[in-house]
């Protein structure tokens, strides 16, 4: 199989090249994102391999179809960036990596909670500057605090286990409750109750029409004063303007984001010598009680290896039988 691999950095290539050693596939690595302007780069390929911010809308899929491209191999679990119906109509097979390391994402989520609560990001900079004062660094004990988890699938469940270890009370919201979470003492409640009772709210649901802007002006108004909100799921689950307003009034006491609704043009790029083109992102970065990481929650050795190996296995299954167990 000849595959155009979009959105690749040196670290992606390292893991994919290693995983590809045992297969006869030909990988062409491209740094650019897949968009209507770049889809032509996949000419003469059997398939494309893509990541979270590649654009697989009807326009791009139609161009791919015209070029004879047969499949899309996602290097991620989420597939909100793919027009699945169109892909089905065009006969383009879409495969994904349904699970790699839920631990990677859940542990990063816990890292955001701890860093925000104990203000480690500020303490780090302060001490290095010779300032050993504690003013402004006051945190709270996690024990007995209420953690609300929206989406208790693979990642939400691991996060629940971690927070249970801190002695937190767990509330959950999911249409398909997890017995493992129940076993940890999690109480499943309606979303409004989760929002109004939680000290920390962590989002682990997929981005769907139902979860789009789940965190908005109304839902924020129903939350506790000074609530901590963490989003490591998908950016558009949060209405950015609403959280900025909530941060300005103090309603939101801490915000940890690994994803951002307009991340596609910014994340994974080094803009340190450039002007950030996004005003809302720039505003978020001015708050001392906001931490943003650039979609790095998945980024561990184990997860990268698993993503690369599963992707190559998916492609091989398509080559051998035109279908794959990880097909959407
Ligand atoms: P999963 O499918 O195992 O779990 C998702 C859970 O959300 C399921 O239990 C599902 O029933 C639930 N859900 C669906 N709609 C819901 C709704 N409207 N309200 C509440 N819950 C709902 O997926 P996962 O592996 O745990 O991943 C969760 C999300 O994390 C993914 O969809 C992806 O967007 C995101 N993710 C982010 C990173 C990162 O690096 N930041 C990495 C991997 C995954």
Explain the overall architecture.
Keywords: NAD, Oxidoreductase. This is D-lactate dehydrogenase. GO terms for molecular function: D-lactate dehydrogenase (NAD+) activity; NAD binding. With 328 residues, this protein is α/β, with parallel strands linked by helices. It folds into two domains: 2-100 and 301-321, 3-Layer(aba) Sandwich (Rossmann fold); 102-292, Rossmann fold, CATH 3.40.50.720. The chain is built from twelve helices and twelve strands. The structure holds nicotinamide-adenine-dinucleotide. The site of nicotinamide-adenine-dinucleotide (NAD) has 30 residues, from helix 4 and helix 6.
Average pLDDT taken over every residue = 96
Beta content comes to 5-15%
Bound molecules: nicotinamide-adenine-dinucleotide
Order of helices and strands: EHEEHEHEHHEHEHEHEHEHEHEH
Characterize the overall form: globular
DSSP summary: helix tally: 12
- The helix-and-strand class reads alpha/beta
Report Rg: 21 Å
| Low-pLDDT residue spans | none
Q: Give the C-level CATH assignment of the largest domain.
A: Alpha Beta
Architecture of the largest domain, according to CATH? Answer: 3-Layer(aba) Sandwich
Helix content: 25-40%
Largest sheet properties: 7 strands, parallel
The CATH superfamily label of the largest domain reads: NAD(P)-binding Rossmann-like Domain
Domain D-isomer specific 2-hydroxyacid dehydrogenase NAD-binding: 111-297
Family: Belongs to the D-isomer specific 2-hydroxyacid dehydrogenase family.
Enzyme class: oxidoreductase
EC number: 1.1.1.28
């Amino acid at each position: 199989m000849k595959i155009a691999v979009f959105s690749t950095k040196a670290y992606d290539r390292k893991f994919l090249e290693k995983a590809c050693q045992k297969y006869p596939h030909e990988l062409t690595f491209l740094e650019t994102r897949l968009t209507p302007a770049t889809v032509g780069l996949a000419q003469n390929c059997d398939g494309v391999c893509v990541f979270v911010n590649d654009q697989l809308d009807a326009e791009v899929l139609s161009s791919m179809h015209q070029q004879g491209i047969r499949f899309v191999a996602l290097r991620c679990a989420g597939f909100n960036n793919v027009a699945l119906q169109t892909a089905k109509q065009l006969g383009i097979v879409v495969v994904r990596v349904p699970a790699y390391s839920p631990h990677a994402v859940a542990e990063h989520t816990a890292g955001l909670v701890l860093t925000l609560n104990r203000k480690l990001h500020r303490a780090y900079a302060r001490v290095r500057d010779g300032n050993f004062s504690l003013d402004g660094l006051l945190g709270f004990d996690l024990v007995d605090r209420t953690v609300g988890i929206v989406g208790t699938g693979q990642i939400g469940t691991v996060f629940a286990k971690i927070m249970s270890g801190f002695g937190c009370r767990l509330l959950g919201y999911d249409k398909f409750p997890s017995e493992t979470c129940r076993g940890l003492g999690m109480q499943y409640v309606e979303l409004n109750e989760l929002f109004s009772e939680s000290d920390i709210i962590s989002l682990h649901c997929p981005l769907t029409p139902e979860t789009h802007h789940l965190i908005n002006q109304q839902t924020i108004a129903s939350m506790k004063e000074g609530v901590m909100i963490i989003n490591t799921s998908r950016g558009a689950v949060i209405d950015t303007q609403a959280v900025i307003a909530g941060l300005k009034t103090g309603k939101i006491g801490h915000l940890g984001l690994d994803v951002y609704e307009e991340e596609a043009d910014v994340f994974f790029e080094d803009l340190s010598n450039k002007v950030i083109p996004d005003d809302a992102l720039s505003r978020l970065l001015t708050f001392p009680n906001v931490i943003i990481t650039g979609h790095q929650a998945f980024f561990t050795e184990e997860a990268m290896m698993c993503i690369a190996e599963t992707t190559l296995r998916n492609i091989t299954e398509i080559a051998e039988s035109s279908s794959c167990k990880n097909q959407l």
